[in-house]
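Input record (one chain):
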Amino acid sequence: MNSTEPATAHDLIGRLASSVALKTLTSEVLTGSEPMPEARLRRSAEFPQQGAGHREAEPIRALCQEAMRRFRDESPTVSDAWLAPRLHYVLRITRVEAADSGLWNFLAMCVAPDFVRWRWGKPQEEGHRSVGQAARYCGSWHSQCFSRLWWAAELFRDGSDYRPVEIACKNQDVLNTVLRQELVLHRPAAQALVRLMLSGVTATGRQVNGLAKLAYAASSTMIYEVLARDEPQDTSALQDWIDELDQAPPAPDDRLPVGPNDGRVAEQSITTLVKWFERLAEVAPVRGKKLLEEGASAPRPVGVSLDKPALSL
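The corresponding structure, as predicted from the sequence alone:
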């Protein structure tokens, strides 16, 4: 869009109330037998006042189109690691704004409902793709299609470095289980988990789950803020990065973008927790561990995420 032309409501990201969204998500819409009524939903959406935090929808739409093109011959789950850092880079919002479910409802139902169906839908005999859970369109922050990716990028990035995000999002158990635990709100803990994935200490989804659950339980008696101090992030630097949205280059397709330079995690804190987590990993309960060991020598199919390597670098 020409930067000299004022953006219209059709071009902007708005807010769609959950009450409206849930009424729309009928069984027919979810199964794909009826299309998403995007035009009607836009008429029900709220848009920011002129000059008050306008964000255009087209960059998000373009990212979703590229993800569907790039990973069309692979499992849609593979797109998470590519899309999460780029969604965070393009959207540029605060955590307070990200807590508003209306934003995510709008993206899923008015901007890119076809992406939600591609990512979460299952093929049907009629040629439709059925999305089994309404929560993928309108749901909790760790279940909704776009919210889960934004929060994964926010919690696992190391300042401006999105590489830990890419690593974390290659493991579906991080997104499905670990993400919702308070443990990853502590930045050194999040980075330590990524380091253990890289080193192979937690080489499978089962191991990641087992360690994360034990580490989360241990946090009730071991205060991680004391064990591994985390300096406050630079809120001014974050706001500057957000304010630069209009001048920012598009998210690159083949290399990671650069996030807000609001402070990296202290290396000493990460190292401290890596050592602590390595000790926990030795005793972490791993579901099905005995069966896995007994059948390690026998060829068998690899599951969606629990039995395959956590990383494929």
